Amino acid sequence: HAKRAGKNSYRFFDKQMYDNALIARRIEQGLRCSIERQELQLHYQPQIDIGSGKVRGCEALVRWYPKGVEQILPGQFIPIAEETGQIVAIGKWILREACEQYRRWVSEGCAPSYVAVNVSARQFKDPEFVEVVRGIIEETGMLPDTLMLEVTESVAMEQGEGAIGKLGELKQLGIKLSLDDFGTGYSALSSLQRYPFDTLKIDRSFIVQSQSGDQGAVMLEAIIRMSDGLNLEAIAEGVEDESQLLFLRALGCTLVQGFYYSRPIPGDQLGVLVTAGFKPLDGDK
Ligand code: C2E
Ligand code: MG
Ligand code: MG
Ligand code: MG
Questions:
Q1: Which atom of ligand 1 lies closest to the CA of 257?
Q2: Residue 213 CB neighbour total at 10 angstroms
Q3: Alpha-carbon distance 135 to 270, whole Å?
Q4: Nearest to 96 by CA among 36, 147, 45
Q5: Which residues are in the EAL domain (predicted)?
Q6: Which contiguous run of DSSP H or E holds residue 115?
C-alpha cells in the first residue's frame, strides 16, 4: 500500500525498504558460507550465584565476524537467519560447538554446571529438532543435564500445546530448560505451570525499570515470588551495577547474569572465571 500514499512518501518508503532489503540480502548471502569460512564463534557469559560468587553456568552467544567487514551482532542477523531458514543449520552448528566447548572445560577441570544454548522459534518448530538435539548430545558425549536450552516466552506460548509436548520430549532427554526473556511476551501466567521449565530468566527491562520508580520494583518482586511458587529458579539478566545486585538479593533472587560480572567472553576465558570465581557478596561484610 506504499503506492497509495503520496508521491513523496512513496519514494521515501521505497528507498528505505530497498536499503533494508539490500542489507538483508547481503546478510543472507554472507551467512550462507559463514560456517565453512569459520566466521562464527561462540562467546559465553557466566551466570553467577551471588552469595558464593561461584559461576553456576553460562550462556552461549553467537558472534559473527565476516571476512573483510565489521562484526555483525546477533540482534541483526539472527532474525534474518530465522526468516530464511538458515538458522536451522546455524543452530545445529551452535549446539554442537557449545557441547564440544563444554567437553573441553570438563577435560580441563573448569566446567560450570551447564551451558545454556538459545533456541529460536524456527529451530524449535523444526520437526527434527528433538532428534537433532539427541544426536548432538550422543555424538559429543555430553551429559544431558549439563545442557540447558533457552526458549523465549513467545516461542513457548505461541506454539501452545505443541510446545508443551516438544519441551516434554526434550525434558525426557534429561536436559534443562529455561524460559528466556520472561515478561516481554504475553504469558498466560496460569499456564506457566504446565511447562516443564527449570529456570525463568527475568528480562533485562525489569531490572532496568526496578530502579526508576516503584512500579518496576513491584513487577520484579512479583516475578520472583511467582518463580518461587512455581518451583522455578529465577535468573536476572542484564545486571549492570551493584545497586541492582543488592536489590535483587533483597528480593530473594540470587542467580544473575550481566555486564556487572562479565560480558560474554571466549570459552577459555570463561574457564578461568569458573576456576577463580567472583567475590562472594556475603563474604565482604
Ligand atoms: P538473549 O538470549 O536474551 O541474550 C542476552 C543478551 O543480552 C546478549 O546479547 C547479551 O550480550 C546481552 N547482555 C548480557 N548482559 C547484559 C547487560 O548487563 N547489559 C546489557 N545491555 N546487555 C546484556 P547478544 O549476544 O547481542 O544477543 C542478543 C540476542 O540474540 C539474544 O538475546 C538471543 O535472542 C539472540 N542470540 C544470541 N546468540 C544466539 C544463538 O546462539 N542462537 C540463537 N538462536 N539466538 C541467539
Ligand atoms: Mg538467551
Ligand atoms: Mg534473554
Ligand atoms: Mg533478553
A1: 15
A2: 9
A3: 26
A4: 147
A5: 24-278
A6: strand 114-119
Nearest atom (ligand 1) to Cα of 264: 11
ipTM above 0.90, yes or no: yes
86 alpha carbon to ligand 1 midpoint, in Å?
A: 19
210 within 8 A of 217, measured Cβ to Cβ:
yes
Over residues 127-140, the pLDDT tens digits come to 999 999 999 999 99
Shortest-distance ligand to the CA of residue 235: 3
The one-character DSSP state at 72 is B
- Residue-wise pLDDT tens digits, 238-271: 999 999 999 999 999 999 999 999 999 999 999 9
Q: Which residues does ligand 1 sit against, CB inside 6 Å?
A: 45, 60-62, 73-75, 78, 91, 94, 118-120, 150, 180-181, 237-240, 257-259, 264
Question: So what's the pLDDT on residue 17?
Answer: 79
Measured from the Cα of 181, ligand 1's closest atom is: 3
| C-alpha cell at position 185 | 511476551
Tell me the C-alpha distance between 81 and 191, whole Å: 30
Q: What are the φ and ψ backbone dihedral angles of 279, each rounded to 5 degrees? A: -65, 125
Q: What is the pLDDT of residue 207?
A: 93
CA of 11 to the centre of ligand 3 (A): 37
What number does the ligand 1 atom closest to the CA of 60 have? 41
For residue 150, give the ligand nearest its CA.
2
**Predicted structure pTM score:** 0.94
d(CA 285, CA 146): 33
User: For the ranges 47-51, 220-224, 281-285, which has the lowest average pLDDT?
Assistant: 281-285
